[in-house]
């Protein structure tokens, strides 16, 4: 019975959201909907997946899409919990469309704690402990280039003013090379 209900709901979703660029079907049981416009700090991607026993059980709500990296963890969790609360009311019936539309209607309220300016650098105060450790480790790896100052200086000296290697940078002085190795040019 679940499989038939899911197939019917899938067909309905496809017909409703046909041509809607914000709706994306990841698989026959997993969907994404993008709210807001590109670059807007209040835009995010909402993902909903159906477990085997859906609609008798709650769908899986995921807010961890890469697109949502600018959002505060607390805001993502708040959206997820409120959507699951709304889904709980609709247990036993097809609810994907209802949940997508519910988020649209309540978008302003859901994003009230999200800053209205896009901060491209991560604010460590907004991250949980695991995210802080991951961010700091990544930051530390990016800082280390592996070259000493002397190596960087020698590398720079081999470049012309445009940042390109000068002609002949890897040429070998044959006469000097042969005199160092003890070999003499044959005539």
From TrEMBL:
Transmembrane segments: none annotated. Residues 8-110 form the RWD domain. PROSITE patterns: RWD. InterPro entries: RWD_dom, RWDD4, UBQ-conjugating_enzyme/RWD. Pfam families: RWD (PF05773). PANTHER family: RWD DOMAIN-CONTAINING PROTEIN 4. This is RWD domain-containing protein. The lineage of its organism: Eukaryota, Metazoa, Ecdysozoa, Arthropoda, Crustacea.
